[in-house]
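[audit] Reproducing an earlier prediction to check determinism. Same input, same settings, fresh worker. If the tokens differ from the archived copy the diff job will pick it up downstream; this log only records the rerun itself.
[audit] input (105 residues):
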Amino acid sequence: MFITVSIYRAKAGEEDAIIALHENWQRNQQARAQGYLSGELLRGINDAGQFIAILRFASQESAIALTNNPERKAWSQRLASLLEHLPVLVEYTSEWSDVWREDFP
């Protein structure tokens, strides 16, 4: 598994627009993202303008393909317009995972 972590700060007043942009991608583009496994957007409790986006892919190639997708490029440009500065992007491979389930006894 290949994981990207993006850390960024919203421009003042753009926090809801960032959340809406991620929700829009989930509704309209996620199904076409080959190799995309899951993602989540975290928001700071003590700093509501701080976000961390975690995306999981089947492979690094899948992540690169999404990055090069014209729709995703337009999405990324829109995200950048809502931020104080470009996101800090860090890439990882998964070495161990434990999935928590609500239905686990």
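[audit] rerun output stored. Observation attached for the diff report: The longest strand covers residues 2-9.
[audit] end
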